[in-house]
Specification:
about 260 residues; six-stranded mixed β-sheet; alpha+beta
Length: about 260
């Protein structure tokens, strides 16, 4: 990854015999696949609203998400010096004080000089690492601007993506419906997200998902009935009436949320 400014960044994902790049240079955004010999280009006309991905992709993003969960239910301490990506760092240790969460501890390694998060580790039940994102090497020398200039190689297929300055009525309607279909019960470490899901009857993918759900443990209560997926750091309940409850909590906390 190369980063110079919010509008100058380049991410390269290396495969065995291929490379996939995402390049942002001012208003130009390119993606490039060496395997397909294909590129896409779009011009950013307005800064889109940021929607966090399901899984953080950098230590900074992971640290920001964790720190947003800080409440009086969290004990924050510091640990002895560590070394991450060949650099001296210290760790912030976050211990949730709520027994309802499945997260035992979160450790954030901070660069001693720049204060940049270098590593985030999440420990689940049994003090096992259930998530980790970290730099393996880092260089704070500012990259040259030429590293963010992309010219498709001869013969490459280039697709021009037309910009959408403002969302159309259908996009706004779908976004509003998605917002109404989701609610958050609780807060902090024990927050439970409940989403209304359409019936699984429309496609082969839906049928495959339904076959997977049928293999999960059957559960029921005052909230209804459904299937339980219990992990070391999260629980998920898919109800027969089309709701999905997910949280870093014990199953009984999901059941309580579904009853509201």
């Amino acid at each position: 990854m190369r980063y110079s400014a919010p509008d100058k960044a380049r991410l390269a994902v290396l495969g065995t015999y291929s490379e996939y790049d995402i390049i942002k240079n001012g208003k130009d955004v390119w993606t490039w696949s060496s395997k397909d010999n294909a590129a896409t280009h779009r011009t950013v006309t307005a800064e889109p609203e940021s929607t966090p991905s399901a899984t953080p992709t950098t230590p900074e993003e992971a640290a920001n998400r964790v720190l947003k969960a800080l409440e009086p239910t969290t004990t924050v301490t510091s640990d002895s010096a560590v070394e991450v990506a060949g650099r001296p760092a210290y760790e912030l240790v976050l211990d949730p004080n709520d027994s309802n969460t499945l997260i035992d501890q979160v450790r954030i390694a901070i660069d001693g000089d720049t204060k940049l998060p270098l590593r985030v580790q999440v420990f689940g039940t049994g003090n096992k690492i259930v998530f980790e994102v970290a730099y393996t090497s880092v260089d704070f020398t500012r990259p040259d601007d030429s590293e963010f200039v992309f010219n498709p190689p001869p013969g490459a297929k280039v697709t021009e993506v037309q910009p959408s300055a403002t969302p159309n009525a259908q996009d706004r309607k779908q976004a509003e419906e998605a917002r109404k279909a989701t609610k958050i019960i609780g807060s902090g470490w024990t927050a439970v997200r409940i989403t209304k899901i359409d019936d699984l009857t429309n496609s082969q993918t839906d049928q495959q998902l339904k076959a997977f759900l049928d293999k999960l443990q059957s559960v029921h209560g005052s909230w209804g009935s459904g299937r339980l997926l219990a992990g070391t750091a999260f629980s998920a309940v898919w109800t027969d009436d089309g709701r999905l409850g997910v949280g870093a909590v014990r199953p009984d906390v999901i059941y309580q949320a579904l009853s509201r």
